[in-house]
Every structure is written in C-alpha cells, then in structure tokens.
C-alpha cells in the first residue's frame, strides 16, 4: 500500500481526540459500539516490535489513557483492546467499551451478534470531555 491510498495517512471525516508527533487518538462516531476509539501510529509501521522501546512505551501510554478516560466517562462493564491491523500497515489499537447488554457481549465485536443492538449512546459532550481529559493526562 502506498501513502496516497492509505486511509490513516489521508483520513476523511476523522474525529481527532488527541495527537502528538508519534500517534493520535480518534473517535469512531459511526460505530454500533458507543465510545469506540482508536490509537493510530502516524508512520507505516506494521508491528509493535518494529518500534523502539521509548516509542512502544509512548503509544502504550496513550492506549492506557484512552482506556482510562473511557472507563471514567462511560462506566462500561469491560474494555476490549485489540491490535489486528491485517489490512493496513499502520500499527493501531481499537479501544472498545463493552456492556452486558451490547449486541455481541460477551463475544468479540467482530463475531456474530447475539442479540439486537441497544440504543446506548455517548454523552452529548463526549468528544469535548475526551479531548480535555487526554490533554490533561498526556499533554499537548
């Protein structure tokens, strides 16, 4: 994949929550799982082991802070963290709040639904709150 066709290098309609020179945290607004976020490494790096120790520590700190803020704001039953990245050469993590009544719980969000989706949503000011909290915990 070249940079010109990469959706992570050239995002459209991306909701940015936080970024630094290495990575960014984004909100996935159209997800059937409210609060779904991703942390995306900016460069084309395929695997965690391709990063230096300081880079690994940096991105995992961001993943942990996104998770912590989701837990505080949304109080889910569980948070799923996944790094699949089979289609894109961008190292990235999915951080997904899960609820006992969500359509797939306790199975993976990528598995077959077990029940109808719930009408759960994030708070109206969710994006602003996440942005504020991530700047406070991670810096600008």
Quick one: overall form? Answer: globular
Overall average residue pLDDT: 93
Structural class: alpha+beta
In whole angstroms, the N-to-C terminal distance is 31 Å
Q: What is the helix fraction of residues, given as a range? A: 25-40%
Radius of gyration (CA) equals 15 Å
Task: Give a structural overview.
By secondary structure, this protein is of the alpha+beta class. 25% of the residues lie in helices and 19% in strands. It is built from two helices and five strands; from the N terminus they run βββαββα. It has a five-stranded antiparallel sheet. A hairpin with a 3-residue loop joins strand 1 and strand 2. Helix 1 crosses helix 2. The radius of gyration is 15 Å and the shape is globular. The N and C termini lie far apart (31 Å). The mean pLDDT is 93.
Concise synopsis of the structure shown:
This protein is of the alpha+beta class.
Key terms:
single chain; 140 residues; alpha+beta; five-stranded antiparallel sheet; 2 helices; 5 strands; 25% helix
SSE blueprint and pairings:
Layout: E1 15-19, E2 23-27, E3 37-41, H1 53-74, E4 78-82, E5 92-98, H2 126-138
Antiparallel strand pairs: 1-2, 2-3, 3-5, 4-5
